[in-house]
Each structure stands twice: as C-alpha cells, then as structure tokens.
Design brief:
about 1000 residues, mainly alpha
C-alpha cells in the first residue's frame, strides 16, 4: 500500500514538473516562481507578393491570435504578444513568428516559424484560397483560423514540447457581476480589467458559453476603444474578439445567442455586413427554436435576445436616433449606445451631427478617450483651442479613478495612482509629464512574464496608457502647428517626458521644427522610423510633413515607401476606409468598398450620393428607412438635388434636415435654392432664421453671415449685406472684421472700414498689411500709421519661413519703392516653396532693376526645375510658359525672343486673378527690356480691371504713377476680398 502511494506521489510530482518547467531545445526551463509554460509571439511585417496590394493588418492578426489562443485556451499556456507591445523573454522561451503573405486577391498564405535567422524553421505553411474581388474574405479566414486554433496549432505546440494544462475537476468559469459591469463601461481600462478577469477564470476553470461571450465582447470593446492609438494592439483585440465569437459558435450547434455575439464582434471590428448577416441568422434561429416566444416586442432581437441586441443592430444601420433613444432609456447599456451613436457618424462630411453628439458624449463619458480623439477631427479651430487641452485634463482626472478600481493593481503602480486622484491637475501637460512615464514604467516592470502570469499583461495596460497620452500630445502639437500656424517647439519640449520613449517619438520631434525649409532636419529625425507594421492609425504623420512631401521624398525614398505601406496595410473595415475617405483625393473608390463592408455607413453613402446618385436613386427609401432619416443623408441628398437644379426636391431634404439638425450646411443649402431662383427675399429670410435659431458650433452663425454679406455685396445689394457683415464682425474673427470693412468701404463709410481693419490688425498681427493696403488703395485713412504698423509687421515676420507672408512682404516693398528688399523677400519665398509665382516676381524685379546676377541665377534654376520633365497642363503651366520664354530671351540676350502670344490666347480661360498676374509679369519684363509703351499698355489693362482687392492692381497703378502716367478710371467695384 505504501509502495503504491509513493508511486502515485512520484508520478504526480513528475507531471507537475513537466507542467511547470518544460525543458526542450529552444524552450528553456521556465523561470522560478512561474506556474505555466510561456508561449511568445514576435511581431512581423505583413508580406505581399505585389507592393501596396490591398490586405490589412487585421488579416495578419487573425492568424497570430488564433495561434496564441491554441496555446492559451487549449493548452493553458501563458502567452506574450509583441503586437500588444508586451516584452518577450527569449532567454526563457524561443518566440514564434506567425506571418501572413497576401499572394494575390485570390489567396492568403499563412506560415508559423520558430528560431532565429538561419536556424529558423517553418512549422506550418498553408494557403487559403479566396473568392474575392479585391480584399481577402475575412469571415472565411477567421473560420479557418479558429478551426486551426483547436486542431493543427495545438498539435504543433505539443510537438514543440508544450504540455497540456491539467483539466480534471475544473469548475465552469462564470464571470461575476463586477466583471459583467465592467464590460458595460466604455473605457479601455475597464475592458482590459474585465478580459483579464475572465482569462484568470479560464486558468483554473473551464470555459463556458457565458465566459466566451463575455470575452468576445470585452475584446471587441477594447479593439474599438483603442483604434486611434499608434499601435497594432487594436487590430489584435479585434481579431481576438472575432475568434472567441467563432469559438463560442463552434461549441455546439449555433444558437441565436452565439450569432448575436458574432454580430457584436463583427460590428465593432468594422464589418457591418457580416454583423447584419449574423443578426439575420440569429433571428431565423430564434423563430425556429423558440416558437413559443412572444413576438409582440418591436425590437429586432425580441425578448430572448441579449439586452444590447438592438444597439448593435442600430449601429450597423447607422441609426443614430435609435442609438440616442437607447442611451437615454437604458441604465445598463447607455454608455455603449452613446459611444456607438458618435462612431456611427464620426467620418461623415460637413454635418454638425458628429460635433453635436461628440460634445454630448464627452460631457457624459469624459473617460472615453477614443471619443476625445475622434472629436478633434470633427471640430474647427475655435473649439480646437479647448478640445485639445480638455482631453489631456480628462485623462489626468479620469485615468486615476479608472485604475483605482482595478483588482490587484500592483503596489508600485497604486503608489503613483493615489496621489493623482488627490491632486487634480492644474496644468494637465505638466501633471501628465510627471506621472504618466513613471506609471507606464511601473506597469511594464510588473508585467514581465516571470512576475505576471495574467493576460493581457500589466505591461499591455501600461502601453495603452502611453499610447493614449502620446495621441493627445500629438493632437495638441498638430493643432498648434497646422491649425494655428504657430510654433509647436515649446510645447514639444515641455511634453518630451511624455513621448520620448514612444516608438514614434520622432514624429513629435518633427513637430518642433518651426520652418518648412528645414527638410534635412526632418529627414534626419525620421531616418530610422519603421512603419512597415503600421496601419491607418499612423495617418497622423500626414499632419507633420504637409508642404514638404516632395523634398522629403527626394531626400528619403525609404520614408516615402514606408508611408505608402501604411495605406497598403489598411483593412476593408469601417474605421480604415472611413479614415481614407476623409483624406483621399479620390474618395469614391474607398466609398464603394466601404459600403460593402458597412452598407449604411454615412461617409460611404454621402460620397456615393454626391458622386453617382443617379445610379442609386432607387435605394434612397431604404437608406432613409434603415438609418432613421439620418440628417447626414438628407443633407447630402439636398446638396445633390441642388446641384441638379431640382430645387423642389432640394428644399424638401434641406427642410427635413433642419427639423433634426438646424445646421449651417442645411440652411446654406436652403438659402442657395432661393438664390438660384433670384429670390433674394427668401434667401435673406432663410439666413436670418438661421442666425436667430440655428446651431452655432464654433462660429457657424458668423461664418454664414459672412457668406451672406459676400453674396449680397457681389450683387451690389450693400444695404442688405450690412446687417450680415456686422453680425460676422461681432464674432471678432479676422474674416468677420474684414467682411464688415469691405461692406463699409463699398458703402463709402471709410472711417468705419478703417476702424474694422485697425481692430483686426491689433488682434491679428498677420492682417496688418490689410490695413496698409486699404489706405494705399483707397487714398483714405491714416496711411502713415498703417505704414508704421506694416513696417513693424515686416520686421517681425521677415524670418517667418511662410512663403505667403514673405510674398506679401515683397509686395509691400514694391509699393514702398524698395526693390532690393522686395527681391530678397520673393527669393526667400521661392527658396521655401518652389512656387513659380515667387520666382517670377524676383526674376522680373531683378531684371527691371538691372540685378543681372540674381536674375540669371534664379531664372536658370526655375527653368531647370520646371522643364526637367514634361510640363503638366494646369494653371501653373501659364507661369511656366513665361519662365520658358524669358529664359530663352535672357540666354540669347534678345528681348524680342520673349513672345507672349501663346499666353494672350490662354487669357480667356483664366480667372481674373490669373489674368492680372500674367499681365503684370509680362509688363515687368517689357519694362526691364526698355519697351515702356508695351509695358504701360499692360499695366493700364490691369489698372482698369475691377478686382481691386488684388495687390497686383495696386502695384500696376503704382507703376503707372511712378512713370507719370495718367491713371485710368475704374468703374466703382464692390470690394469683398476678405
């Protein structure tokens, strides 16, 4: 008997040792103190047989996560995933590499490897054939990978020496009320905590339908709430959600509950088409298996469906009105409904609806940082001032509260969190710099495999916090540099502790460059940036390099190739395609694919309506019924019928929009209907109604008042324009004050006009030259005071690096008869921008004032840059022709070689501005060449033109005056150039 007992004890001990310390080649013994063998997965770029072929990172993650699920859920292994920015311990366990190659649109090749470099061995290699037009079949891929996670991948891991987890006498895993509550909280900390708690239940108990469903929803929420972060974690979470939903479906014959969870996962992954198919399947199953259920409930799911069923259905249809009703009527699922109401419309065009809903969600859910980030894409400059700071303040107020509720938060992290709760930030950025880096480091230290056996790890949580802070700093830096056009350098330096350790920290350093001409500095900063595994979340990089792309491409072709890899890495899902529609020059192709992935997505529908409504008019009723008469759709229909000239239909849809969303765009469209019919009374009455009753997001009322004033001034209806102009000026915006000045000038109220421009100059120094221009052009006002202010502006902005400002400074010097300074300003503008307009001004002024060195060098450079390849036939070509003509004339030292007959033939097709420019350039050439009569003829033609807001008009008249010529009379124009 004792011998048998000893034998059993020995066998048990051996089993435990094999379980806790697997020692095989490439898989060293587990570190002391750990209880499970460790499965680790490295990151790997998505491979493609053709560069930039479609096929996104979600495809890669579906394979990678199914392999991890095989280890975690079938064998009970501890896992670590580099896609979540979790640290790997190669000394303890040799990591695997799971890679996907998109061979073509018909096949996806999946491969599992292990080892390093030459010793790496292929352990699994399979190709899935696809019946796809462009993008792989996600559903087919998920279904196959989920099967592999229970079969071949399990066998593969066993062959690699990984043991089975003990499963005897395991109790069913049932998430408790606290975990279920967290799954309803729309912040990433709560969702991370919930899935970690469920995984902990699975390590000691056996998975159940309830736990699998909860796990799928938790990961779906987590993927949705983090998809703005510059990390691939959100694609990994979405893949896990789909795989766990399919795992739930595979447990037995699919029932309605399994299909509802599948719909949830697909909807939040961005494939509403698959979600709607699952919803249809769920409803059919309910009818066939539960005929006794009462069906008098008007909800899509009925009494036996999950509580969130109608919310998911409404989100798939972009039915915002239904989602908002759920948000107000449900205490349990209000956060989910609120967040999805916003994300249903976040990529939609010019409607105020995203702004309006986002504002409401942020007030009610300040801890939902996903909404904070997207909200900044929906608003303008006015609200951007506060919104880009409010998100940081919310992070420092809400994050400590969220973390304090996390079970078993490590003591090292809790010591940092508690003071954050007590203090409350006086300056969010300073507070963030002091606490966030320390918190991230503490969580990363606690999350190493030998210390943390939970999943996802503490380090994963820390990295999400770091990514959230990074995104908020980037938003603010972008706002300062690209929206306000001010230096972001001080802000970047102040917030450096927050972002210096982030993988994309170099992007923040690039924001600190104050001048676009610092291309080499930018290229140096980004030279080591690796974007091969990035997806559309990194489209933020566009904001940094605007205006210097060409130079960057020339200097750093590697950067160009990797940047386009971001585009190629996109998935055929709602978020990726929606982002592309917003930034793509040709959005129609994206819209066609988006409407397949999300048949009722408003970004896709509005694009299709505006581009090819005539092909889809038979679908309008379905779109409106399913979306609940979404105002974004009715607004687009109004705009399209207005373009068609069908004013009755246009009015119907604009008025329908106004009943739900009394926005600037809707009132503007309605007013335009009246204007097209020459009904000025209807036009004025409509706009007055908006100013009294319409929504005012930012400066909507002032902006539309300014548009009305401009329109009425064009029609010589100055008295009617004046109230609108004064309404615009009441906003004290630069364009509002300039609008009022224009109207006062047209009415002959010169003192009032100058008063507006002086106020504008005082508040917005970059408009100072407008005051000078008014005095110089009209002969009214205090020219001496305006000149003093202008010279102060010129002194301050001469080194601005902004080519537009430098060009205006050049014009000022021309009017002040300071040709050498004018040449330097134009030359500096050309050096920065490469724009022929600036080059021609510098070349021809140098020609006029006999500065042959500058003239010849600059002309040669401009000619070489413009004619190194075939010239494109666009508006720039007309300036290029002048460069071509005068270059040949200068080379031959023969003024008559510059023959501008071709340009004369082009003039009728040009705008008044372009005509003025070309006349002026030709006139300067003939002046410098000694043919004063020919030059004066062109200058007189310019001086007679009514477009008096243009600087060129003043310079032409100044030229005539300086030559003692009589100035031609001009029919009194309406001045509305602001």
């Amino acid at each position: 008997m004792q011998s048998q007992i000893r034998t059993r004890v020995f066998v048990s001990a051996v089993a435990v040792l094999l379980w806790t310390n697997t020692a095989l080649p490439g898989n060293p013994p587990a570190a002391e103190g750990t209880s499970r063998a460790l499965l680790q997965l490295e990151d790997a770029p998505l491979l493609k047989s053709k560069p930039y072929a479609p096929g996104g990172m979600l495809i890669r993650e579906i394979l990678r996560q199914s392999f991890l699920i095989a280890g975690r859920d079938e064998l009970g292994l501890q896992t670590r995933d580099a896609a979540l920015r979790e640290s790997l311990d190669s000394a303890r366990s040799a990591p695997f590499i799971a890679s996907v190659e998109i061979e073509d649109k018909k096949s996806v090749r999946m491969r599992i490897e292990r080892g390093h470099d030459k010793t790496r061995k292929i352990l699994f290699d399979e190709t899935i054939e696809m019946d796809a037009e462009r993008y792989p079949d996600y559903a087919k891929l998920v279904e196959r990978c989920e099967q592999l996670s229970r079969t071949k991948f399990v066998d593969l891991l066993k062959q690699q020496g990984f043991p089975n987890a003990p499963t005897e006498n395991r109790k069913p895993a049932r998430p408790g009320p606290d975990t279920q509550y967290k799954l309803r909280q729309m912040d990433f900390v709560s969702q991370w905590s919930a899935v970690r708690e469920i995984h902990a239940l699975h390590t000691t108990g056996r998975e159940t339908r309830v736990s699998l469903g909860a796990l799928s929803r938790g990961y779906a929420n987590l993927g949705h709430l983090t998809d703005y972060q510059c990390s691939l974690a959100h694609k990994a979470f979405k893949a896990r959600a789909l795989l766990y939903a399919y795992r739930l479906r595979s447990t037995e014959t699919p029932d309605a509950d399994a299909m509802w969870h599948l719909a949830y996962a697909w909807a939040l992954a961005g494939r509403s088409d698959e979600a709607l198919a699952a919803i249809g399947h769920a409803r059919r199953l309910k009818k066939s298996h539960a005929k006794t259920d009462k069906t008098d409930d008007d909800s899509v799911g009925g009494p036996s469906a999950p509580e969130w069923a109608d919310i998911i259905n409404a989100y798939c249809h972009s039915n915002v009105s239904a989602l908002r009703r759920h948000a107000s009527n449900s205490d349990r699922w209000d956060e989910l409904a609120m967040v999805l109401a916003f994300h249903a419309v976040e990529y939609a065009g010019k409607s105020n609806l995203p702004d309006m809903i986002g504002d409401s969600v942020i007030k009610n859910l300040p801890g939902c940082f996903r909404v904070h980030d997207a909200y900044n894409d929906c608003i303008g400059v006015i609200r951007g001032h506060s919104a880009t700071v409010d998100s940081a303040t919310a992070l420092m107020m809400e994050l400590p509260r969220q973390l304090s509720s996390v079970k078993d938060l490590p003591e090292s992290a809790r010591k940092l969190v508690d003071p954050m709760i007590d203090s409350g930030p006086s300056n969010a950025w300073t507070a963030m710099g002091k606490s966030i880096p320390s918190l991230v480091k503490a969580l990363a230290a606690e999350g190493i495999p030998e210390r943390d056996t939970g999943e996802p790890s503490w380090e994963c949580l820390g990295r999400m916090i770091e990514d959230t802070a990074f995104a908020q700093v980037q938003r603010r830096a972008n706002f300062l540099k690209n929206w306000l056009a001010v230096s972001a350098n001080e802000f970047v330096q102040h917030t450096k502790p927050i972002h210096k350790d982030h993988p994309y920290a170099c992007l923040m350093a690039a924001y600190g460059l104050d001048e676009p001409k610092k291309v080499k500095a930018f290229c140096e900063i980004i030279k080591d940036l690796d974007m091969r595994s990035a997806d559309t979340s990194l489209l933020r990089i566009r904001n940094i390099a605007d205006g210097i792309w060409t130079a960057v491409y020339q200097e750093t072709p590697r950067f160009r190739d990797q940047y386009y890899q971001i585009w190629a890495n996109h998935d055929a899902i709602r978020g990726d395609l929606g982002r592309f529609i917003r930034v793509d020059n040709e959005p129609m192709d994206r819209a066609r694919w988006l409407i397949r992935a999300a048949p009722y997505d408003p970004a896709a529908l509005t694009t299709i309506i505006m581009e090819e409504l005539e092909k889809h008019e038979n679908r309008i009723d379905d779109w409106l019924e399913k979306t609940g008469d979404l105002s974004i759709i009715t607004l687009a229909l109004g705009d399209k019928y207005l373009l068609f000239g069908e004013h009755e239909k246009a009015r119907y849809y604009f008025q329908k929009t106004i009943t739900v969303e009394p926005s600037k765009a809707a009132y503007r469209g309605l007013a335009k209907c009246y204007l097209d019919e020459n009904d000025l009374d209807g036009y004025v009455a409509t706009l007055k109604e908006f100013i009294q009753l319409g929504q005012d997001f930012g400066l909507d009322r002032a902006a539309l008042a300014r548009e009305a004033a401009s329109t009425l001034m064009e029609r010589r209806s100055l008295e009617r324009a004046l109230p609108f102009a004064e309404e615009a000026a009441s906003s004290y915006s630069a364009w509002g004050l300039q609008c009022a000045a224009a109207c006062y000038e047209g009415l002959g109220k010169y003192d009032d006009a100058e008063s507006m421009l002086r106020k504008c100059s005082d508040r917005y120094p970059n408009t100072t030259l407008d005051w000078y221009r008014f005095c110089k052009r009209s002969g009214k006002g205090d020219l001496d005071a305006a000149r003093i202010a202008a010279r102060k502006f010129v002194a301050e902005y001469r080194q601005s690096g902004n080519p537009v400002i430098l060009s205006l400074i050049g014009m000022f010097h021309v009017l002040e008869n300071e040709p050498e300074l004018a040449i330097k300003s134009y030359q500096a503008a050309y050096e920065i921008s490469g724009d022929t307009f600036h080059a021609l001004n510098a070349i021809l002024l140098a020609h006029l004032h006999k500065n042959m060195k500058v003239r010849n060098e600059l002309c040669e450079r401009a000619h070489r840059s413009r004619f190194s390849e075939e010239v494109k036939a666009d508006t720039m070509r007309n300036r290029d022709l002048i460069i071509y003509e005068i270059h040949n004339a200068f080379k031959a030292d023969n003024p008559e070689l510059a023959n501008f007959t071709t340009i004369e033939q082009l003039l009728p097709d040009l705008t008044p501005h372009e005509q003025m420019d070309l006349h002026y350039f030709c006139a300067l050439y003939w002046q410098g060449s000694g043919d004063v009569d020919k030059a004066d003829k062109l200058m007189r033609r310019i001086a007679r033109m009514p477009n008096i807001q243009h600087w060129t008009w003043m310079m032409a008249r100044e030229s005539l005056r300086s030559h003692g010529k009589k100035l031609p009379k001009v029919k009194k124009p309406v001045y509305y150039g602001f």
